C-alpha cells in the first residue's frame, strides 16, 4: 500500500481534531484547508502574537523527550508568552520540517501532543506549513492571543518599591533534564515531577489573567531562559534594580533532594535552568496580602521573592547571611560561545 502524499498526511494528522462548534466559538471563520485562515477580531481587544522554534538536538533529544512531548511543549512555550502579557491564547499556526527518521507514525504522535496542549488551553489550530528536512526535525509554532486594548502587562512597568514574585517553583525542568541527559557517570533517575516539568510544562495563563484583571501585575515575564535572565530583562526594560532573596526562592523538596543525590547546588538550576514557564513579575507592596489570598483561593502558587530599588538596572541576590552579590546576566543563549 503506497504511503500517503504530503496533503493526505497533513489531512490525517489534523482532520477532525477540533470540532466545528469549538472553532466557530473561537472566532475561526475559515481554518485548515485554504491558503490562509480567516479569524474574526472582537471589538475592544488587541492581538498578541508569539512565535517559537524548536530544533532537534538543540531544544530536544530522543533521550529526554517522547515524540508527543515535543509537540505539547512547542505549543506550551508559546502559550506561556501570551500568559506573560496577561492575555488569553486563542489560535495557533504550526509549521514542521520533517526529516526521514520522523515517519508517519512519529509525526502523528507529535500532532497528538500539539492537540492535547491545544485542548487543555482552548487554542484553535488554524493552519501551518509542512516541508521536508535533511536530518533533524524543526518545529515552529505561532500563537495568537487576545488582551483588552491598552492593558497588556509588559516588562517595562516595574518601579522602585515593588515586590517581586513568581507564580510557581523554579528549577524543576532543569533538574529533570539533568537526570535524563546521557552522561559518562551514573546519575539517579529524577523524580517524576521533575521529568514532567521538563516534558509537559504548564503555562501560567490563569495567573496572568488574575494579575491583569485585578490590576496587580505591574511588570511581567515568563521564566523560559532562567530566573536570573528574566529578572535582568525586567530590570533593563524598567530601569530599576531587582533584589532577589535566596531564602525566599521557592525550592521544591523533590528538587532539593534530587540535587543532593546528584551533588549539585539546586540554586544553579533555579536561577539559570529555565523552561519552568512560571511568571516572574512585580506588584505594589500594598497589594501583597490580597494577591496571596486570591491566589490561595484559586489554588495557584505565589511566592514573593524580592523587591525593586532605584539604581542602575541590574539584578542582585541577597544571600541567607544578608550579603548581596550581583547575579550574572546568564541563561539559555543560542549564540553563546564556548
Automatic annotation (TrEMBL):
<keyword id="KW-0479">Metal-binding</keyword>
<feature type="binding site">
    <location>
        <position position="222"/>
    </location>
    <ligand>
        <name>Mg(2+) 3</name>
    </ligand>
</feature>
<feature type="binding site">
    <location>
        <position position="35"/>
    </location>
    <ligand>
        <name>Mg(2+) 3</name>
    </ligand>
</feature>
<feature type="domain" description="PurM-like C-terminal">
    <location>
        <begin position="159"/>
        <end position="312"/>
    </location>
</feature>
<dbReference type="InterPro" id="IPR036676">
    <property type="entry name" value="PurM-like_C_sf"/>
</dbReference>
<comment type="function">
    <text>Catalyzes the ATP-dependent phosphorylation of thiamine-monophosphate (TMP) to form thiamine-pyrophosphate (TPP), the active form of vitamin B1.</text>
</comment>
<feature type="binding site">
    <location>
        <position position="332"/>
    </location>
    <ligand>
        <name>substrate</name>
    </ligand>
</feature>
<keyword id="KW-0067">ATP-binding</keyword>
<keyword id="KW-0460">Magnesium</keyword>
<feature type="binding site">
    <location>
        <position position="155"/>
    </location>
    <ligand>
        <name>ATP</name>
    </ligand>
</feature>
<keyword id="KW-0547">Nucleotide-binding</keyword>
<feature type="binding site">
    <location>
        <position position="224"/>
    </location>
    <ligand>
        <name>ATP</name>
    </ligand>
</feature>
<dbReference type="GO" id="GO:0009030">
    <property type="term" value="F:thiamine-phosphate kinase activity"/>
</dbReference>
<dbReference type="Pfam" id="PF00586">
    <property type="entry name" value="AIRS"/>
</dbReference>
<keyword id="KW-0808">Transferase</keyword>
<dbReference type="GO" id="GO:0009228">
    <property type="term" value="P:thiamine biosynthetic process"/>
</dbReference>
<feature type="binding site">
    <location>
        <begin position="128"/>
        <end position="129"/>
    </location>
    <ligand>
        <name>ATP</name>
    </ligand>
</feature>
<comment type="pathway">
    <text>Cofactor biosynthesis; thiamine diphosphate biosynthesis; thiamine diphosphate from thiamine phosphate: step 1/1.</text>
</comment>
<dbReference type="GO" id="GO:0005524">
    <property type="term" value="F:ATP binding"/>
</dbReference>
<feature type="binding site">
    <location>
        <position position="111"/>
    </location>
    <ligand>
        <name>ATP</name>
    </ligand>
</feature>
<protein>
    <recommendedName>
        <fullName>Thiamine-monophosphate kinase</fullName>
        <ecNumber>2.7.4.16</ecNumber>
    </recommendedName>
</protein>
<feature type="binding site">
    <location>
        <position position="81"/>
    </location>
    <ligand>
        <name>Mg(2+) 3</name>
    </ligand>
</feature>
<feature type="binding site">
    <location>
        <position position="81"/>
    </location>
    <ligand>
        <name>Mg(2+) 4</name>
    </ligand>
</feature>
<dbReference type="InterPro" id="IPR036921">
    <property type="entry name" value="PurM-like_N_sf"/>
</dbReference>
<dbReference type="InterPro" id="IPR010918">
    <property type="entry name" value="PurM-like_C_dom"/>
</dbReference>
<dbReference type="GO" id="GO:0009229">
    <property type="term" value="P:thiamine diphosphate biosynthetic process"/>
</dbReference>
<dbReference type="GO" id="GO:0000287">
    <property type="term" value="F:magnesium ion binding"/>
</dbReference>
<feature type="binding site">
    <location>
        <position position="59"/>
    </location>
    <ligand>
        <name>substrate</name>
    </ligand>
</feature>
<feature type="binding site">
    <location>
        <position position="81"/>
    </location>
    <ligand>
        <name>Mg(2+) 2</name>
    </ligand>
</feature>
<feature type="binding site">
    <location>
        <position position="35"/>
    </location>
    <ligand>
        <name>Mg(2+) 4</name>
    </ligand>
</feature>
<comment type="similarity">
    <text>Belongs to the thiamine-monophosphate kinase family.</text>
</comment>
<feature type="binding site">
    <location>
        <position position="52"/>
    </location>
    <ligand>
        <name>Mg(2+) 2</name>
    </ligand>
</feature>
<feature type="binding site">
    <location>
        <position position="275"/>
    </location>
    <ligand>
        <name>substrate</name>
    </ligand>
</feature>
<feature type="domain" description="PurM-like N-terminal">
    <location>
        <begin position="33"/>
        <end position="147"/>
    </location>
</feature>
<keyword id="KW-0418">Kinase</keyword>
<dbReference type="InterPro" id="IPR016188">
    <property type="entry name" value="PurM-like_N"/>
</dbReference>
<dbReference type="Pfam" id="PF02769">
    <property type="entry name" value="AIRS_C"/>
</dbReference>
<dbReference type="InterPro" id="IPR006283">
    <property type="entry name" value="ThiL-like"/>
</dbReference>
<feature type="binding site">
    <location>
        <position position="129"/>
    </location>
    <ligand>
        <name>Mg(2+) 1</name>
    </ligand>
</feature>
<feature type="binding site">
    <location>
        <position position="225"/>
    </location>
    <ligand>
        <name>Mg(2+) 5</name>
    </ligand>
</feature>
<feature type="binding site">
    <location>
        <position position="52"/>
    </location>
    <ligand>
        <name>Mg(2+) 1</name>
    </ligand>
</feature>
<keyword id="KW-0784">Thiamine biosynthesis</keyword>
Amino acid at each position: 500500500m503506497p504511503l500517503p502524499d504530503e496533503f493526505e498526511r497533513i489531512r490525517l494528522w489534523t482532520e477532525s481534531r477540533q470540532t466545528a462548534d469549538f472553532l466557530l466559538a473561537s472566532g475561526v471563520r475559515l481554518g485548515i484547508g485554504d491558503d490562509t485562515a480567516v479569524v474574526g477580531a472582537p471589538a475592544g481587544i488587541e492581538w498578541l502574537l508569539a512565535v517559537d522554534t524548536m530544533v532537534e538536538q538543540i531544544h530536544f533529544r530522543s533521550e529526554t523527550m517522547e515524540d508527543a512531548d515535543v509537540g505539547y511543549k512547542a505549543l506550551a512555550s508559546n502559550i506561556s508568552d501570551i500568559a506573560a502579557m496577561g492575555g488569553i491564547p486563542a489560535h495557533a499556526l504550526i509549521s514542521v520540517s520533517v526529516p526521514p527518521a520522523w515517519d508517519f507514525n512519529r509525526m502523528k504522535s507529535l500532532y497528538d501532543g500539539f492537540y492535547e496542549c491545544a485542548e487543555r488551553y482552548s487554542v484553535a489550530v488554524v493552519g501551518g506549513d509542512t516541508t521536508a528536512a535533511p536530518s533533524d526535525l524543526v518545529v515552529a509554532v505561532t500563537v495568537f492571543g487576545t488582551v483588552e486594548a491598552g492593558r497588556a502587562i509588559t516588562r517595562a512597568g516595574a518601579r522602585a518599591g515593588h515586590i517581586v514574585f513568581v507564580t510557581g517553583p523554579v528549577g524543576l525542568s532543569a533538574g529533570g533534564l539533568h537526570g535524563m541527559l546521557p552522561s559518562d557517570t551514573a546519575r539517579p533517575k529524577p523524580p517524576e515531577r521533575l521529568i514532567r516539568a521538563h516534558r509537559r510544562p504548564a503555562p501560567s495563563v490563569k495567573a496572568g489573567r488574575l494579575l491583569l484583571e485585578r490590576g496587580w501585575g505591574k511588570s511581567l515575564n515568563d521564566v523560559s531562559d532562567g530566573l536570573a535572565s528574566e529578572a535582568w530583562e525586567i530590570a533593563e526594560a524598567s530601569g530599576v534594580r531587582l533584589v532577589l532573596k535566596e531564602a525566599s526562592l521557592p525550592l521544591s523538596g523533590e528538587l532539593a533532594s534530587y540535587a543532593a543525590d546528584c551533588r549539585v547546588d539546586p540554586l544553579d538550576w533555579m536561577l539559570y535552568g529555565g523552561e519552568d514557564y512560571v511568571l516572574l513579575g512585580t506588584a505594589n507592596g500594598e497589594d501583597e496580602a490580597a494577591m496571596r489570598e486570591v491566589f490561595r483561593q484559586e489554588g495557584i502558587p505565589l511566592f514573593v521573592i524580592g523587591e525593586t530599588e532605584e539604581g542602575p538596572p541590574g539584578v542582585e541576590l541577597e544571600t541567607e547571611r544578608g550579603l548581596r552579590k550581583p547575579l550574572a546576566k546568564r541563561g539559555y543563549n543560542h549564540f553563546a560561545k564556548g
